[in-house]
Amino acid sequence: MINNTSINKDDSSLVMAHMWVAFVSLFVGGLMGLLQTLVRSGTLTLPFGIGYYQILTVHGVILALVLTTFFIIGFQFSLMSKTVGMSNKQRDSAWFGFWIMLFGTVTTAVTILLGKASVLYTFYAPLKAYPTFYIGLALVVVGSWIGCFTNFRQLYVWKKKHKGEKSPLLAFMVVINMLLWFIATLGVAATVLIQFIPWSLGMVDTINVLVSRTLFWYFGHPLVYFWLLPAYMAWYAIIPKIIGGKIFSDSLARLSFVLFLMFSIPVGFHHQLTEPGIDPVWKFIQVVLTFMVIIPSLLTAFSMFATFEITGRKKGYTGLFGWIKGLPWKDVRFFAPMVGMIAFIPAGTGGIINASNQMNQVVHNTIWVTGHFHLTVGTTVILTFFGISYWLIPALTGRKLTAKINTLGLIQTIVWAFGMSIMSGSMHIAGLLGAPRRSSYSTYGGTEQASEWIGYQIGQAIGGSILFIGIILMVYIFINMVFLAPKGHEEFPLAEVSDDAEPTPMFLENWKLWIGITVALILFAYTIPFIDIIQHSPPGSPGFDML
Ligand code: HAS
Ligand code: CU
């Protein structure tokens, strides 16, 4: 039986610590985003010698790497605590991981703020940062591994006590996401420890650029699913409860997570399609695998539509689309993630365009790609995270989500969707017109082509300013839910599986099989091209500082 009471006090403090870092990051990172769009449109010149690439690096690292990782790990601890429980020892190790991640974050952030690491969040070689940038990032990864192993241990202990039972759905999902994260971060850990740190310390003079980028994207693609899967956890197993329905199918949800584990890693080359030095045959193979990883998202879309329709019909709404009216549009816990889902339709379509080899030649390195990821992670994922916060934070702080904050949340969601449509829409169009990404304001010598972009750059600044209002609203909502809202009880909405669903087959819990296939696919997709890259590399490159 599912229990919807709040989680215990000690676990709440642990989760809240993660939430604090996430929301402070939202504010700092969002402010940098605003400054960027203003610089890019020629509206603002940065004072005090602050560089455009410096703020761009803060923005990317703080939002894409810090906010996400802390929110996700915190949220996942709350799910594990609810479903399989957390012992004192496990909580201690979770705290230990948290402090290491925080220390790493501060180390990296200070390095960037001092202007010693304006290398963007992808830290592409041969751009070179001061060593503490990489050391800090490595610590964040190590801290997150402690989180991984704590979660693995939590499920293991539960399974030992519940022999023969299938693991709770959300615990299963968390463990898949952490397995994905662990296997993926091995790549970034390898390049940081073996290549970047010795190089930035001056122990070696050069770096093998292609090897570093390949190891980065081995990590960088699954990274985006590490962001997406917690949103999917909420869509599959929490939203049904909020809308007064049940989970459409436990097996389908698990299957889609297993497919993500298998197919999200051996696809990194779709970020390197224009990179010389990788055999086109292997690029083709990884593009095919990329199309495989679209399937679990389509399964998810199907499952969500089914949940919405069945729930609506049970409430008595008829007609082909009558069920849409049956959804609780005025409940922000539903509305925010729902807007995220709707955004994922164009966002995912853009992803499919990116992954198509020929079309990638058009969009790669243009601001179209920036538009793509502001829709995916910057809308779908973050709006779902906001949607989670509306019940999770009050449940943790023992307060109520008041009607006023609910309404403010609805406004926040609309502001966000509106601002993002303008900003991301302009980015997509400007990208198709050839406008580059990762560049500060330039008139490109007054060329005709560049003059076509300027209107869209102003569009980005307008969208970005609206988004910043959205950030201020969200930060206020957070503060309200932590300090100001009246004391009370907010439920932890875990959904139950529909009675009509078939029982979940036990083979879905065959961890050895899934991990085995995952490793086999990675070895298949990467071994030969990687040997090739190493054998045929040009001489290593010296470092370039972006100051
Ligand atoms: Fe991507 C670049 C391909 C998904 C994030 N992506 C990026 C970068 C980021 C990113 C950050 O192949 C830039 C990295 C950098 O700095 O260079 N992406 C894909 C593909 C997918 C995809 C095929 N991306 C994501 C997600 C992200 C993300 C998710 C973050 C969370 N992406 C690429 C490629 C590049 C790339 C290339 C490199 C481009 C280049 O050249 O540099 C797929 O996973 C997408 C599948 C999704 C769908 C949508 C399913 C729809 C659903 C919603 C249903 C709605 C409902 C509501 C139920 C097919 C599930 C309906 C209700 C009503 C009432 C209507
Ligand atoms: Cu990717």
The chain-level structural class is: mainly alpha
Strand element count: 0
The dominant shape is globular
Q: Taking Cα atoms only, what radius of gyration do you get, to the nearest Å?
A: 23 Å
Give the distinct bound molecules.
Answer: heme-as, copper (II) ion
**Topology pattern, helix = H, strand = E:** HHHHHHHHHHHHHHH
Q: How would you portray this structure in words?
A:
With 547 residues, the protein is mostly helical. 71% of the residues lie in helices and 0% in strands. It has helices at 9-40, 52-83, 88-113, 131-161, 169-200, 209-237, 239-242, 250-263, 280-314, 332-355, 357-363, 367-397, 403-432, 448-484, 511-535. It starts with 8 loop residues before the first helix and ends in a 12-residue tail after the last helix. The model has no long low-confidence stretch (mean pLDDT 93). Bound molecules: heme-as and copper (II) ion. Heme-as is lined by residues 122, 224, 227-228, 270-271, 290, 293-294, 297-298, 300-301, 304-305, 324, 341-342, 344-345, 348, 351-352, 354-355, 360, 363-364, 369, 372-373, 376-377, 381.
What are the SSEs and their pairings?
Elements: H1 9-40, H2 52-83, H3 88-113, H4 131-161, H5 169-200, H6 209-237, H7 239-242, H8 250-263, H9 280-314, H10 332-355, H11 357-363, H12 367-397, H13 403-432, H14 448-484, H15 511-535
Helix pairs in contact: 1-2, 1-3, 1-12, 1-14, 2-3, 2-4, 3-4, 4-5, 5-6, 5-8, 6-12, 8-9, 8-15, 9-10, 10-12, 10-13, 12-13, 12-14, 13-14
Bound molecules: heme-as and copper (II) ion.
